[in-house]
Amino acid sequence: MSTHDWPHDPDGEQGSEGRRKYGHAVFVKKVDEEDDFPLRAGDYREEFADHPIRLDADTVISVEDVFQHIDDDTEFDDIVAFHKAIGATMRDNGYWTYEGADAFTRTRG
């Protein structure tokens, strides 16, 4: 568990919902599919940078840890684009803890 002083409990309803949601799902629950898009990465980062993201039972990082790898000027047209960018960034930077993710992200031939 992180010793970071979070603005709210990473396992409370504002965080990972009592450890019911992890990683990618916690990023996405902070946006509204209808009202928040298009969404600029810098705006999301500014609002949520210090919020906790539980990756697994033992690891909590901040939104900033992932968003430092996404250019602030990147704009997500919709929630699908947001999902894809967060997932790719998490995989590329060692934050994706789900085993078997490659089976879902490789191009099948």
UniProtKB/TrEMBL annotation:
InterPro entries: DUF5785. Residues 1-21 are annotated as: Disordered. Pfam families: DUF5785. Residues 1-20 have a biased composition (Basic and acidic residues). This is DUF5785 family protein.
